[in-house]
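Person: Show me a sequence?

Helper:
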Amino acid sequence: MSRRTLAQIIAAAGVGYLVGPARADDRPTEADVSREAILFDPATPTAGNPKGDLTIVVFFDYNCPYCKQSEPELTRLVKTDGKIRLVYKDWPILTPDSIKGAQWALAAKYQGRYDDAHLAMMAIPGTKIPAARMREAIAKSGVDMDRLDADLQTSGDDITKLLRRNLAQADSLGLQGTPAYIVGDYRVTQALNYEGFKRVAADARARAAKK
């Protein structure tokens, strides 16, 4: 299945195919692709220091091996630096099961367990991970699955809209694949190790200081 087809699924159906037909009034609206929306969408999961002097935005897919490769390196930087605010942009463009994984992770946010679901799926090695295996990993992380399903049912429209916004924002930035990172004013479209992230963060701070 192509990236374009997956994008059409998100844009047209969203979580509807998981929790029932989309409502008649659940039509796509123009997504906000402003810098403010990309950095500070209140519905988007975040980590790190909320008052940090540098924001890193990561666009990722739970079936992307390069995302999984870079995940611990980025997490290490956020922890050791202490002044980075991390923004997670679920961008499920690789397989239909990637969409399910993103939906479940975002539903887990309503019980304060997004990080657990996210890290559980990122820890699964390989690509084309079936949805059943993702769900099993989320359950083992301690997420209340009954509540997750209930939150997905009641907040499905909001999750759909968030995925649409992420898709529109990625397109507005000209992103072609995962992983992709926005580090200050820099756009990085490849997996990085700890030293690579550290170097880009330093460059971003140096550039911001000159403004």
About this structure: Confidence is low (pLDDT under 50) at residues 13-30.
